[in-house]
């Protein structure tokens, strides 16, 4: 299933197709112009002046040259961000979204700070199965141990992106977990502890343990000690290398936006390790944004287009899941699928398995 999205390609006329191809060929230019218009506050100025401004007036108010306004606004007109009427420039709905829509802002920052430079090496990354783009930030095998030492803007936009999509699901996910009668939960890939802290605030009686790489556990500990939450513990582990023998005491294993960090063989290996080490009655809840379970095409587009980040920047081999592919892995490992719940926050689904 793909909810009937992305069905236009075969219907385009030759001329429409050439226009689409040209938009793609110039996409990096339009992207950078849109971002510059946002960050140079030109969009904001036009939002404050909805009756339109001449080029001279806009140059004056933005303290930029006439040349700058002409270059930026002409690309913006060609891509529907601005429009022109009787020698005045106006902001369009697209421009308003670029300036003010939270999701668009976060996606744009993530693509500019985290992905833009490194995506130049996508082809090499595909061929070598390595995140060759990551070298723009240093000599790392994957982005995960690098996260806590990336440049501030890169780190901030990575965490904002990650948190925006998973955080929006946390309230509903926590409500969902309420009905499962949980006493002890292991949050694998718990990152900076955001989910654990939300859960802890809501249910102080549940024992929560965050498992992650040592670098992330350090950040999580700092956050959690500052909040003085006492029902959260920590386990440093690399799920690829460690045995996971100490997980038998948990009645629930939680993984949110975690398994998408790995390739199929690794996912099978991790799930198999969990299956053989967990208490036999323990349930596993997996929260992921499956692109074929989204309820609108925009969400599906955003989820799909996160995948090349994994290839060029994160690890060289993982991607956002198509549910039907993921289900095959669960069935191969003989997991019982207890239920799948969609529409968790912006784009997540929870699969509960045993
Ligand atoms: C995309 S983040 C998800 C964070 C969080 N669960 C959420 O929903 O926002 C993936 C997390 O998995 C952790 N991770 C990646 N590889 C790992 C490994 N081999 N062992 C343990 N944790 C790992 C990363 O450090 C990171 O915190």
From TrEMBL:
Q: Which residues form the O-methyltransferase C-terminal domain?
A: 176-332
In terms of SUPFAM superfamilies, this protein maps to:
S-adenosyl-L-methionine-dependent methyltransferases
CDD domains in the cross-refs = AdoMet_MTases
Keyword Nucleus assigned: no
Keyword tags: Methyltransferase, S-adenosyl-L-methionine, Transferase
Q: InterPro entries this protein is in?
A: BVU_1015-like_N (IPR049480), COMT-like (IPR016461), COMT_C (IPR001077), SAM-dependent_MTases_sf (IPR029063), WH-like_DNA-bd_sf (IPR036388)
Which residue ranges does the record assign to the BVU-1015-like N-terminal dimerisation-like domain?
A: 21-88
Report what the protein is called: SAM-dependent methyltransferase
């Amino acid at each position: 299933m793909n909810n009937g999205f992305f069905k236009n390609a075969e219907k385009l006329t030759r001329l429409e197709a050439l226009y689409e191809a040209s938009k793609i060929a110039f996409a990096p230019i339009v992207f950078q112009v849109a971002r510059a218009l946002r960050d140079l506050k030109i969009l904001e100025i036009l939002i404050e002046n909805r009756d339109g401004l001449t080029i001279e007036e806009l140059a004056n108010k933005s303290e930029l040259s006439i040349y700058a306004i002409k270059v930026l606004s002409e690309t913006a007109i060609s891509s529907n961000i601005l429009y022109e009427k009787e020698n005045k420039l106006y902001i369009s709905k697209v421009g308003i979204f670029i300036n003010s829509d939270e999701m668009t802002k976060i996606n744009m920052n993530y693509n500019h700070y985290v992905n833009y430079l490194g995506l130049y090496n996508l082809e090499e990354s595909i061929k070598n199965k390595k995140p060759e783009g990551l070298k723009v930030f240093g000599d790392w095998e994957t982005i995960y141990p690098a996260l806590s030492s990336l440049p501030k803007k890169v780190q901030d936009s990575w965490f904002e992106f990650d948190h925006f999509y998973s955080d929006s699901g946390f309230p509903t996910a926590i409500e969902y977990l309420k009905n499962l009668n949980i006493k002890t939960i292991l949050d694998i890939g718990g990152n900076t502890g955001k989910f654990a802290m939300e859960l802890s605030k809501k249910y102080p009686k549940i024992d929560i343990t965050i498992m992650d790489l040592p670098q992330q556990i350090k950040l999580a500990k700092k956050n959690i000690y500052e909040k003085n939450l006492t029902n959260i513990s920590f386990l440093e582990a690399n799920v690829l290398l460690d045995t996971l023998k100490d997980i038998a005491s948990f009645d629930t294993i939680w993984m949110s936006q975690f398994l998408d960090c790995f390739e199929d063989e690794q996912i099978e290996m991790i799930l198999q390790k969990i299956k053989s080490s967990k208490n036999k009655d323990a349930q596993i809840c997996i929260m992921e944004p499956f692109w074929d379970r989204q309820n609108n095409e925009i969400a599906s587009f955003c989820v799909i287009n996160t995948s090349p980040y994994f290839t060029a920047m994160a690890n060289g081999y993982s991607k956002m899941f198509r549910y039907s592919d993921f289900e095959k892995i669960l069935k191969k490992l003989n997991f019982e699928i207890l239920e799948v719940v969609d529409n968790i926050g912006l784009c997540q689904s929870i699969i509960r398995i045993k």
